[in-house]
Structures are given as structure tokens and as C-alpha cells.
Amino acid sequence: MRTPPRIAVVPGPAPALLYRGAQLDDAANPPPGAEVAGVGDGIVAVIVPVGAEAPDGTHWVAARHALADLDRATGAAALRVLAVANWRDRGRYCPACGAPVEPDPARAGWRCSGEDVPVFPRTDPCVITAVLDAADRLLLSHAANHPPGLHTLVAGFVEAGESLEDAVRRETLEEVGLELVALRFLRSQPWPFPGSLMTSFVARARGTTIRVDAHEITSAAWYTRPELDRALATSAISLPMPYSVARQTIEAWRAGALSC
Questions:
Q1: Which of 106, 133, 167, 172 has a 20 to 30 A CA-CA distance from 25?
Q2: Domain of 179?
């Protein structure tokens, strides 16, 4: 049976993971000032202060790049540690009373030091949707906060009191001006950059006329499979990272395995 890992991470806007060769380090001797706590399932987070030097024989790797090289089990553990580390970077105090939040070994989690009650890391749900038209074309868009050329699916945060399905309909209407006639849940993926849970859907649009909001979305277009192949071959556009649920959903459509 595989031993659950101890994963060292530097939190913040550009989180990093500690590497030894091609594998995550077990961080048996964490740097001074590190916070060590369980995150469940035997996984131990070693949250290292920003600027800490990596021990001899190891090096820090940007988390977004490191995740692409990890096997499924280690990657899943790393995502959990990243989510907790980024939450700790922003949420060191109880939201109810303001007392410091501290590790709780008994629960493999966190507790308020003032009232001794559990405190749970914040997770922000997001929806991401493969919008298809009647001809099975896929809608891809470029967001204002994305690098030039990067195109992806319609996405956005779920608002308070809103269902996932209503968020899909609202975001699609707001960002590209399309109403939906059908939608179907696909899967979910933790995305701790800094603390989201991505929920993916496939949906069918009522029409094909796109109206971008010109604020969050700068451009959007329908693609057939050959059109997307040509755009990628000429580097006219690029797609999200292969391990992201956005890319996996796009690839499912390219393979003809996505329907609504």
C-alpha cells in the first residue's frame, strides 16, 4: 500500500511545490517557520514561508507546471495541499470571532483557537461549460485576463444562493449572449488557484449569434473540429493546460465523445 505523501508548498499568487528529481519531496525536515498539518486521508501539508530555500537536493517548481508531471494519486494529493496552503495564506483568523485558526490533529483539519470549533477551508465553486450549437460546433472564447491567444470554455463563479445549472445559464448569457436549451453535468475538479472547485458541463445553445460582453470576454467564435485543428496547427490560438478540466472537456468534444 502506498504511503500518503507529505507535500511541501509555498502558497501565494504563484504557488510552488518542492521537488526531488521528478517526484514530490516528502519534506521530512521542513524549513524553520513551516506549518505542518493533516488535510485528510493521511496527507500532510507542509506550508513553507515565502522565500524559504529548498533543502539540498530539492528545488521549487511552479505548481501549475509541476501538476502536469505528477501521477493521478500524487497530483490529487498536491491539489488538496495547494488548496489548504492558499487558504491559509489568506485566512488565518476565524471568520466568526477573529481568533487565530490552528491545526487540529484530532480532525486532520483546522479549528478556531478561541472557541475550539472546526473551521473549514473556503472553496469557491465555478462552472465551466462546453457550449455546442445544432451543428455540433464548439464555442471557444478569449478572456481579458488570459494570455494572448489562449481560448477556452465559458466559465464563471457561482453566486450566493445560485444553483450550478442557473450559474451555467447566467454566465453563458452574460459572456456570449446565448440562451441554452439543454445542459448536462460532466465532472468536477479542484482548482486551487487560489481556491476553486471547477464543475464542468456540456450545453446546447438556442441560436448561434454571439454577443461578447467586451469586459470579461474580448472575443468568441464557433469551431468545427477541422477548424480548431487548423487554428492550433498555425498557433492562431492555444488551449488550456492538458490536466485542466477545461482542456479535458475540449478534447472529449474533439474525439466526438461529448453530447447534450
A1: 106
A2: 124-254
